[in-house]
Amino acid sequence: MEWIYLSPHLDDVALSCGGLVWEQAAARERVTVLTVCAGDPPPGRLSDFAEGFHARWDTNLEAAATRRAEDLRACQRMGATAQHFSIPDCIYRLDPGDGSPLYTSETTLLGPLSQVEAGLVVDLQHELSQALPSKANIVCPLTVGGHVDHRLVRAAAEGLGRPLWYYADTPYVLRAGEALEAAISGTRAISFPVSEPGLEAWIEAIALYASQISTFWPDLQSMRVEISAYCQQVEGVRLWQRV
After folding, report:
1. Threshold 0.90, pTM exceeds
2. 2-242, superfamily in CATH?
């Protein structure tokens, strides 16, 4: 059996279902983590918003390369193959008309795609159709939290017209409340057990994204406690399918 997890960013799959990825790989199933927004930023000065992320990540202009290297190590820890597309993260994307940054605040980051990016969904859909094997299980984000890049990936995946599995976007789902209920409307949930070694691999894979930990947790121990509690709460990792 082959599984392909669509990751908007260079950490989303490890954050959301790293324990399940490890279990599937340990069972000798083929697992690929395909990260969509893994490309370099365009040349020129970054927006203040993007530079703020770089400062928090302590990566400067090497942010994309640093994060790709983190992803390779994390995927190796989970037993998965890493694949990277070249679309830049939304914090880098520019209006093709006037070259201005498209997403410059938390409000735009956690909102719908800019109207000028309608063609990007079509382009990504075509790229996915060329890259995805016909018999693989495709797993895409539910878009809990509403991040614009997660919306991009889900829209393109659903445009393929193939059966899909969905995962709950972590850590957004940990604080989601009613947002999760809205995201899973019309689906059924299936829980996949995660063993103690699988949980440890999940936690260690997340920790390998060293630049990203401070975005979500004050320290590694806080991450370990929250991911362990979440794993226990949902009895492993939960995926959804349309009914």
Report:
1. yes
2. LmbE-like (3.40.50.10320)
